[in-house]
Amino acid sequence: MSATGYTTPDSQLESVVPVHPTSERRPHAITVQSENTSYSDDFITAKFVNRGSSVNIVDGQYIVKPVAQEYELQTQRKVSKTGLMMIGLGGNNGSTLCATILANRHQITWHTKEGIQTPNYIGSLLRASTFSIGADATGQDIHVPVSDLLPMVHPNDLVLGGWDISGVPMDKAMSRSKVLDYDLQRQVAPHMALLGKPLPSIYYPDFIAANQETRADNLIPGDDKQEHLEKIRGDIRKFKQDNQLDRVIVFWTANTERYADIIPGVNDTADNLLNAIKASHAEVSPSTIFAVAAILEGEPFINGAPQNTFVPGAIELAEREKSFIGGDDLKSGQTKLKSVLAEFLVNAGIKPLSIASYNHLGNNDGHNLSSERQFKSKEISKSSVVDDMVNANRLLYKAPEVGEKGVAIGKGEHPDHIVVIKYVPAVGDSKRAIDEYYSEIFCGGRSTINIFNECEDSLLATPLILDLAILAELLTRVQYRKAGEPEFNPLYSVLSLLSYMLKAPLVKPGTEVINSLNRQRNALEAFMKACLGLEGSSDLLLSTRLW
């Protein structure tokens, strides 16, 4: 056996240690017996009533009128053979995700000081979390993994590929990232090596930090953005054809870009954006080129970084092409915690006065974010994550303003929201985060909550990428029609149901952005149940409260 382990591609314990529950394959075992739900070989068709209320405020009086709209939802039962093409394939997130899937696919176990470790998908909402589907005869809630509710792609079946401005082969990229345990890297390296090196990518120096230039050795040549667009489209088509795929999910997990300026006549409409690409306009970013390529190829595009990839012209183009898009910015550790705690404070009647977030980040993402213009993109996505929760109490006190980097801007009753990111190379992929919540409590009292957390940044991001890709594929197979309409239609182009995994959720223009983690998860649960003709989760438990 060589020192690298390249002659031992599979774990010596393969087929001996049981498959982890989050990685198991299970047949679709849920059948709904209802006049509202029907099954054919091809489809699950369900009737659903979307209920809500219309509110009109007249002279301080709230006039509330219940409203309801009947829909039919049709879900294709056959799961697409799906490829995942990542931009930033050789980065920390991309290489970690590939290694994770390969370790699970080949059931590679490894040793740490804690003992034998089994590959798994812990951290994935779909694979490691459950929804309640009802109660049994004793009144006990029955929960099933989210991935069992509807037919979905198994992560092990994703075909992997993508682009990177760095041409380091994938086994070396995994080693460079320094995320996974050595014994796991040793065994998964031969499988990673078979992925080869990433496809050449687009590099426009003005959009990412200058400190990334040394990595940029694997580039599509030239400055013609139209040629770049056509090359990316060709890459998607070839990947799809070579692997005999039904669907390709294109996912941006590369460096954070600076914000693109929104310029009338350049990127404000679909036609203007396409013309700006033809003219190689300076304000068309690499991520927007990739998004447009995916849109024109009819494949979903997800933006896992905070920049404004989806300029108005890109959204309009997706609408016109009936393509699917989702974003922005992966919501991993600190941001999830912040949204949960802010919601708790507001729901408990406690008034947030200040929220300050400090981050120490040492991986290449942190290196890129040490540049002011790239940091600005991240600051914007992080600073809006509590707005809708505080706004819910706007009748009682004013909503927060967004703070500039390290600067308090509190005015009157507006709480401050401060975001600071510091690049500290020594911490590597192990992100340190400190959140401080300063709140007003009863009779003018004050409360301070300080939270410190430490996590492997890429190990939190990887399951989010999986969930987003798998959900995006599912949503391409769901169609709807209103009661009385003859034809089913695809869902709206902006996949806002992905919001649970995203810091700055992209939503249909003109609609409210929901950042509340509970509301985001509840919406996804209600939609998936609606596809089966089931009502959303009810915590009323009315029968337990009556004689």
Written description of the protein model:
- The protein is α/β, with parallel strands linked by helices and about 550 residues long.
- It is built from 14 helices and 19 strands.
- The chain has helices at about 90-105, 125-130, 170-175, 180-195, 225-240, 270-280, 285-295, 310-320, 335-345, 365-370, 370-385, 385-390, 455-475, 515-530, and strands at about 35-40, 45-60, 60-75, 80-85, 110, 115, 130-135, 140-145, 160-165, 200, 245-250, 300-305, 325, 350-360, 415-425, 430-440, 445-455, 480, 490.
- The protein has a six-stranded parallel sheet with strand order 10-9-4-11-12-13, with helices on both faces. A five-stranded antiparallel sheet has the order 1-2-3-18-19. Strands 15-14-16-17 form a four-stranded mixed sheet.
- The longest helix is centred in the last third of the chain and has 20 residues, at about 455-475.
- It is globular, with a radius of gyration of 24 Å.
- The termini are far apart.
- Mean pLDDT is about 85; it is low at about 1-15 and about 400-415.
- Its cofactor is NAD(+).
- It catalyses: D-glucose 6-phosphate = 1D-myo-inositol 3-phosphate.
- It is an enzyme of class 5 (isomerase).
- Its EC number is 5.5.1.4.
- It holds the Pfam family Inos-1-P_synth.
